[in-house]
Task: structure prediction
Amino acid sequence: MTTKRDLDRRCSYVVLVQNAASSFTDLRDLASYLSTLGVAGCDVVILDSSPRLQFDLNGRVLRWVGRHVAMWSRVDPVPAASMMATCEKVIVAADDIRYTPEAIEKICDLLDTHEVVEPQDYLDPMPWWGGIEAGRILIHRGIEPQPDHGATFGFRRSAPCTTVYPATDVFVRRQSGPLGEWLSSRPRLAGDDFALPMKTAFFFSLVPLLVLLATLGGLRLAGGYASMIAFASVALALRGRSGAVKFFPLRACLLAPVWVLERSLSVYWALFRKLRGPDEDPSRVHVPERARPTSAAGRAG
Result:
């Protein structure tokens, strides 16, 4: 039952808990963070797709800071969030996202005039694999300043969700996961690009072309080609860092070529997994596809 107190809250904050990230330390950190949102007046909802035993264990920690609700692992989190929220404005976030009260206020203010708002996430702390991810983000910003990770977004429940507003000046911290988690996500993220044929073809061609140039023209020609790709990726990252210097250190720009190399290898890994059969990860947070921009650059990942 919706109470007057629920209606007085600024927004519902819906967090998705993944079983793989639900160690006791992770849960305690998440609960501490969510408790600050409850004090700030947010309606906190925790959608947990963990198996029953893990769900019950999670509840011992999470039920004190919000409504802890079981969710089928293959349920789309967007309609689930809309159904469970009690406020008109809803923020959906992965369990590694950490908003400040100021960022929540900015998102809520933007939702007064926009149907869907997606802020820019950044990584902190930033281990070396986080630096590679930051390089990817900066390259994307250098091509088109549109957040693309889908780690968090806000929407109005009554809106048709037809357009997304890129809040590129609202920065939200995302915690870097462990190395194993980062590695396991490489083929999945590369596989997402199969919906963008030109981008996928570019990454598929990088390594074969490098080998071909080395075979026909020698290492000098291949090195020149690799240097050109590296220079272009650093230049794009530096361009993307404009307006985000506080959140992205310079070393993220220098690691941008490493991401290009990683993605050019991961596309083959993704192709192998695709040929092997479906491998869904329904626990991911997605901005609704109908709310996504149609530009291919706007969905770089």
About this structure: DSSP finds ten helices and eight strands in the chain.
